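Re: Re: ligand-bound prediction request (bumping)

Still looking for help on this. To restate: I need the protein modeled with Fe4 H S5 bound, output as structure tokens. Inputs repeated here so nobody has to scroll up.
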Amino acid sequence: MKCKVCSGPGVIDIRRHNANFCSEHFLRYCRQQVEKVIHEFRMASPGERLLVAVSGGKDSLALWDLLLELGYEADGLYVGLGIGDYSVESARQVKAFTDRFAAPRGGSLIEVDLRETYDIDVPTAAKVGKRVPCSACGLSKRHLFDKAAIDGGYDALVTGHNLDDEAAVLYGNVMRWQTAYLGRQRPHLPAENGFPRKIKPLVRLSEREMAAYCVLRGIDYQIDECPMAVGNKHLQYKAALNMAEEDTPGMKQAFYFGFLREAVDRFAPDAAAREGGQSNGEPGSDGSTNDAEGSLGLCQRCGSPTNNEVCSFCTLVERTSGHDPVPVELVRRPAKRRQR
Ligand code: Q46
Ligand code: ZN
Ligand code: ZN
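Reply:
Sorry for the wait, this slipped through. Here it is.
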């Protein structure tokens, strides 16, 4: 296996591009893909302040590293979800990355802990609210990401959704013809209705490539799956698409970028009719959605945009705070409804 660029020993093959790369040229390829997509979708300009939502996983840490490499002013935002040991380890990885890779290049970390600040955590919110954990989690993350970006005066909120993620969300939205979500499934959502600009600069890179990037850069990351993800739809969609990709390399990229080129605009009226909010079908990682909120007013508790008197997050906090913490293992996902 020889590097496509320098003919030196290759360390990774990328079948959809029919290319192998050595370490140096693979890292350069990753930077180029991010630069290309930022330019193509006019995501950000030099000098803007970016806030990267970091989970401790490979994608978000690689993204923060890539943006700093490319010269962007990028800070990190970590939300402590209170998901047992998983969250403890995730926080440790984020802090280690910040100290070693981000701080020396001017990146600082903002931390928000659900338990410390709001007296809730994801397992307890799920149990008390009788919600799917990913729904309570996604709702909380979206709210806190938006709030941190607005409060901190950042030009954009950046998330580490990669090609596999976006193709799986698209697959789920198509399977259920969620036309309003399809109309908003773009890698760049402009700031509107009190929400920050949201961008996804990793959509040209795959999950596997992000893992390789971290290994080659020496970035440690959380390798365990979230214990609350078991059985979620998003993982099932990913598995289905992986089988198709195995047979036809490039299928995922063609599916997702073909959608952006040929179809997303056709669904824009459906998205507009839904009015406000920025949900695009990916609240957590399970693809379920339930709280796209309009923009008719501001939450009486926190001042966030909402079409209710009190926003979904504040409602979640009001219901959940004061309850004893529920251990992760006591939260069971609801039984599947029988299908015909
Ligand atoms: S952290 Fe949260 Fe994910 Fe865990 S509970 Fe679901 S959404 S799976 S990205
Ligand atoms: Zn090379
Ligand atoms: Zn609120």
